[in-house]
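In this section we walk through a basic example: taking a raw amino acid sequence and producing a predicted 3D structure, encoded as discrete structure tokens. The instruction is simple. Fold the sequence below.
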Amino acid sequence: MRHRYCSCCNRLGELLAHPSFQVKELALGTLMKFVQLEGAHPLEQPKWEGQYLFPRTLFRAVVGGLLSSEDDHSLLLSQFREYLEFDDIRYHTMQAASDAVTRVAAQQAETPLAFWNNAFTLLSSVSLPRQERDVPRFYVKHAEPSDKWKVAHLKEHRKVFQTMWLGFLKHKLPLSLYKKVLVSMHDSILPHLAQPTLMIDFLTSACDVGGAISLLALNGLFVLIHKHNLEYPDFYRKLYGLLEPSVFHVKYRARFFHLADLFLSSSHLPAYLVAAFAKRLSRLALTAPPEALLMVLPFICNLLRRHPACRVLVHRPGSPELDTDPYDPQEEDPAKSRALESCLWEVQALQQHYHPEVSSAASVINQVLSLPEASIAPLLELTAYEIFEQDLKKKGPETVPLEFIPAQGLLGRRDDLCTQFFTLS
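The resulting token sequence is shown next.
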């Protein structure tokens, strides 16, 4: 009977790779039922009374089948997510996933992309509760649960959760997965780690990559600096270095400027630093599209509202021209850019922009900036299509003057050569 039972479990594990999703779903449900029954009625009796029982061997085979190296199991993993609501399943899933990632990465010189995608889908499905439950929820029923079991304590779950993610992130992942991890780092991973500061190496390495990777890594770094007293003196220098013309065209533009607004919200930042950011954004605004300008210009005005010491950039007499501007746009260190010695002549130039809304937004800087800050949240995801639609919906005047002197001929005015041959009837 034991042999027949093991053969049945092995066959069900093979069916997790079946082409039909219905077959895979039924095989998963059957295996999870076996996990529950084998835990309640173990094949071998415990060595001592009160020992925690869980069919680890069978469950590791289930998790190994889910983490396929050949097929995309995202739909099947979404079905498995309902079992992760149970404390014991979640705890053993994290352990089994850590072992599977280590084993597959060691066996294969180049790990297939399908495996990394399946592993990330499973790991990101694990969500720990914010606080410990009074009564743990177990999928495998026990007659007398004990407080001595590690599976019953949230502290132990955090340790395993940390081991799982650190083991996953130490491997060379595809670029697309780096982005997905960094997007969810600040709210889905860092709050549940036993020691969040252990992520500093991963985040600083990601911040040095450049482009969208660096942009997304800043949020996690800011959480460690703000909530865990981490010292990272190059944070604002890295943020300043990301201000390039391409920042207005990347996929994560809205997220970047939302985070930049958050990072620069402190009133304790030195004036030279804020002035450097305002000047850099003003210089980039000269070549930015209109939809980005409608967001950047209020952003600059908000910086001047928060830091009155930087308003000298607006009110400095004798504004320099481009060839005499002391600001150095090639300087990577904002402290050495000499932005505080310059002025925002770029914003003044944008007051002559062809788009009337942009010129109006640029003209705000001429007014007294003592009003409350302008919210840039509705403008973060503004697109050129939306601006075009807004212009179409605007109602113009009923009568539009086209010419002061009415035309007298087909192509010209009175006494023109054409009027000798053509006349208007």
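Looking at the output, two observations stand out. The two ends are 107 Å apart (CA to CA). The first helix runs from residue 2 to 15. In the next section we compare this with other chains.
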